[in-house]
Structures are given as structure tokens and as C-alpha cells.
Amino acid sequence: NLPSWVSSPQMIIEPTSPKLLPDPLKEPYYQPPYTLVIELTDVLLHPEWSLVTGWRFKKRPGIDSLFQQLAPHYEIVIFTSETGMTAFPLIDSVDPHGFVSYRLFRDATRYLDGHHVKDISCLNRDPAKVVVVDCKKEAFHLQPFNGLALKKWDGSSDDRPLFDLAAFLKTIAMSGVEDVRTVLENYSLEADPLEAFKRRQTQLEQEEQQRLADLSKNKKQQQLFLGSLASRLWPRSKQQ
């Protein structure tokens, strides 16, 4: 007979547990209202290989800022399609201050149609509060409106998307969004959702500036009108 791990395909294609994370923290401990599930490879790190150094992993600009800004609002979970043996020391290197709450690896994914899929129904978290960030849409295709697909990082040093991602996710948190899927669905068809967010943000800022300018203009017109009205109500004496 074949060993049990060979004869049972469920061991390979199903997550190791139907409940990948422990229950949310209860008072007096602090549980952030949202959960960020983020990939490691090509999102936070870029693998590079050379004859001289072999494999090396480059840290993406903005990681420290991302974690620091989001930690008060998001429970940060690195969920990678890499194996634990490969990823564990890499996560240590990108998170020296311990902002990452949990680490999930390839054995926690669901293997479907040749892809390692992150099934958030196994996370033990409210799906209305979970954001999945990956460079592959296939990674979250079971719950497409929980996901945000970034462009794969090519290792360039002048890269900015993690700074934009921090602004985007912080805006969601500060706005108190009840269901993140209502926001992420609006960006699901965008080739570059973060660029789309920045365009909309710029447009809203311009509209707000125009609104304030119109208010200021109307206020000045109102003051001129009131001044004219007062001069008619209390005309100057003939001696003046």
C-alpha cells in the first residue's frame, strides 16, 4: 500500500486547517478592525540570482512605512505561496520590529487549476474586513472582491507602490468602511488600482478646492450685498 500522504490528495490540494488563524483577540487585548493578507514574493521582496551571489532577495522600498502606518488599523498577515522553510527567515528580515501578526505558507493555500489560492473563508476572520494583496489575481479568485492586484515588482529602487498602498488602505480604515469588498470591487477591473486611486484622490481634492473657492466667493458676494443693504437701511446723514 502507498503511504497515507501519497494516497490522500487532499493533503496536497487543501489547506492544512479549515481555521488558519486563531480567534480574534478579546479585551483587554487590542484586535485591529481590519486584516491585511499580503504576499511576500514580488510584492514585498524581489528574488535575484547571479553566479557570484546565488539567490538573493531585495527588500522593496516602503515596507517599513507600510507596516508602521497600517499596524494600528490592520492585523498584518503574510500569506505566501512559498514554503515555510524558504519564507520564514525572509519574513524575519523584512519585519525586524514585529509588525506581522501571523505567517501562512504554501501548505495553507488551496491548490486549484495550477495555482496556489488563498481561501479567506479559512482565515477565521470576517471577510468584510479582509484585504488580500498579491501580484496574481489567481491567488484570490475564490473571493475576487477581497483582493487588490499590484503589478509585479521588478526590483527597481525608485519603486513607490507600497507608499501608495499604505495611503489607500489607511484611507479605508480611517473612513470606517463597513465592508471592504464594496471599495475593492470598484478597483477590480483597473490595470493599476493604486494609480486609479491616486487619480480619484486628486480629482476629489480638486473638487474640494473648487467647492471651498466657490464658498469663499459666495461669502464675499454676500458680504458686499449686506454692506450695500446696510447703507440703504442706515443712509449717511446729509452733513457727512
UniProtKB/TrEMBL annotation:
Gene Ontology biological process terms in this record: mitochondrial membrane organization; protein import into mitochondrial matrix; release of cytochrome c from mitochondria
GO CC terms in record: endoplasmic reticulum; Golgi apparatus; nuclear speck; TIM23 mitochondrial import inner membrane translocase complex
Matching InterPro entries: FCP1_dom, HAD-like_sf, HAD_sf, TIM50
Main location per the UniProt record: mitochondrion
Classification via Pfam families: NIF (PF03031)
Keywords of this entry: Membrane, Mitochondrion, Mitochondrion inner membrane, Protein transport, Transit peptide, Translocation, Transmembrane, Transmembrane helix, Transport
Location within or outside the cell: Mitochondrion inner membrane
Top-rank taxon: Eukaryota
Topology of this chain in the membrane: Single-pass membrane protein
FCP1 homology domain span: 29-172
Metal-binding keyword on record: no
GO molecular-function terms, A-Z: cysteine-type endopeptidase activator activity; interleukin-2 receptor binding; protein serine/threonine phosphatase activity; protein tyrosine phosphatase activity; ribonucleoprotein complex binding
Complex formation: Component of the TIM23 complex.
Function comment: Essential component of the TIM23 complex, a complex that mediates the translocation of transit peptide-containing proteins across the mitochondrial inner membrane.
Family: Belongs to the TIM50 family.
Protein name as annotated: Mitochondrial import inner membrane translocase subunit TIM50
Species, as recorded: Pelodiscus sinensis
Lineage: Eukaryota, Metazoa, Chordata, Craniata, Vertebrata
Gene (name only): TIMM50
